[in-house]
Design a protein that fits this description.
- The chain has an eight-stranded mixed β-sheet, with helices on both faces.
- It is α+β, with helices and mostly antiparallel strands and about 200 residues long.
- β7 and β8 form a beta hairpin.
- The mean pLDDT is about 95.
- The termini are far apart.
- The chain is built from five helices and eight strands, in the order αβββαβαββαββα.
Length: about 200
């Protein structure tokens, strides 16, 4: 896919995050793996801009060492963990959102167990929660990389969720599924502990 098409996809997906209430206003960020002039890196949504007002020129190219053109937009404050995921895992896109139920559960639980068979979509028998660390920090990048190991998604303590995929569509769909599972689990727990499924 060409660079301009990747930029358009990030803009379109960022707007969808607002419309679908997956990530309000300026929250969340999206990236796509990209190579520019033989330099491996990623295209990522910028820092501080409203998702609904993004333009293709706002999307930032960052190499895998974290370098970017300082004369252009500043990349997302969460760029470090996007880079860590591309370095450590086989994926072409990362979607991070502050969706309502994923935020609630990330404040309450260390993992979401197999109360529903669709938990397996995230790659295992549970959805783990990465330990809390300040946003944008190296510590958060390490915590997320550990929690998502052998998975395709995880929650981030007191923060939200992140999913990876072979494409932005795949990562986004998984983020939607995780949010729905979080809602189901939250509502089950309001009544009583749900039955759990075995391996």
């Amino acid at each position: 896919m060409s660079e301009i098409n990747k930029r358009k996809l990030i803009v379109e997906t960022s707007r969808f995050l607002v419309d679908s209430k997956l990530s309000p206003i300026r929250s969340g960020n999206i990236s796509i793996r990209h190579e520019k002039k033989n330099v491996s890196g990623l295209l990522i949504s910028p820092s501080g801009k409203k998702n609904c007002s993004l333009r293709t020129s706002d999307v930032v190219f960052v190499d895998l060492k974290g370098h970017y053109d300082k004369k252009l937009q500043k990349p997302s404050s969460e760029t470090k963990f996007h880079i860590a995921l591309y370095k450590n895992y086989s994926c072409n896109s990362v979607v991070h959102v502050h969706s309502k139920y994923s935020v609630i559960l990330s404040c309450l639980y260390k993992k979401i167990p197999a109360f529903h068979y669709m938990i397996a979509l995230a790659g295992g028998k549970d959805i783990k929660t990465a330990k809390y660390a300040i946003y944008g920090s190296e510590e958060l990048s390490v915590n997320i990389s550990r929690a998502i190991k052998e998975r395709r998604a995880c929650l981030i303590a007191n923060h939200g969720q992140v999913s990876i995929g072979n494409s932005i569509e795949e990562a986004l769909e998984l983020a939607q599924e995780v949010e729905l599972l979080c809602e189901y689990y939250y509502k089950c727990k309001l009544i009583k502990d749900p039955n759990l499924l075995g391996d």
